[in-house]
Amino acid sequence: MKKLNGNARNGTVDAFLSAILASYEESGVEDENLKKIFALIKSLQSGLSSAIKQERAASGLEEEDAARDEKFRALIKLLDGLTAIPVAEVSSAAKELFAIVSRYGAETTLKSYDEESSDIASLKSDLSKAELEEKIKALPGLSVLLSELWEAEDAFLKARKEAVKQKVSLPLSATSLKKQSLAFVNSCLLPYIESVCYVREDLKGLSKIIAENVERANAAAK
């Protein structure tokens, strides 16, 4: 079984832990070692989730962050819808641009403040290429929505700069807890469930689900 990628984001690890906890609880498997392992995972997930929320609220940027999240999700939804328009010029342009935006995906809105800003800056650079200018203009509503997203990001960065001036410090505990979670999953949970499956047929279903969640989390980390 593959290990969880050490480059996984805080939000990705939080979602991964939540998913495997739910799968474990639904499985109804009886195993004293797994019971202890998942008790620790539950504690780690609770702490990580709380730390992520505190990080996002610490500098009073939640409102500005929510605004850019809304625009980012709207961008994905708009392009996805335009790919189905029965007009060759529109659908073709939409598919090309949707492929670019999909490199980042909706998970961008789950990342830390700095990671999300980095993604939005990279997306803006990708879409600023000369060969895409006419394609963007060809898609109804896209130019306006992109302008709104860039403006929302500028507003966020301005607020973030002001927060720094006021010496508002963002907690690092989320990253610390993420690292602890990664280490525990990779060194304890995954090796145990992989080995015990050889003698416990009833654990193979849960093992498969965990492996699928690892693959999903690792794909998001690339």
Structure description:
There is one protein chain. The protein is mainly α and 222 residues long. It has helices spanning 10-27, 32-57, 62-82, 88-102, 113-127, 133-137, 142-165, 173-196, 204-221. Helix content is 75%, strand content 0%. Helix 1 (10-27) runs antiparallel to helix 2 (32-57), helix 1 packs antiparallel against helix 9 (204-221) and helix 2 (32-57) packs antiparallel against helix 8 (173-196). The longest helix has 26 residues, at 32-57. The protein is globular, with a radius of gyration of 21 Å. It starts with 9 loop residues before the first helix and ends with a helix. The mean pLDDT is 90.
Quick summary:
This protein has 222 residues and is mainly α.
| Helical residue percent band | over 70%
> Spans of 5+ residues with little confidence (pLDDT < 50)?
none
Listing every helix as H and every strand as E from the N terminus to the C terminus, the arrangement reads HHHHHHHHH
Structural class, from secondary structure content? Answer: mainly alpha
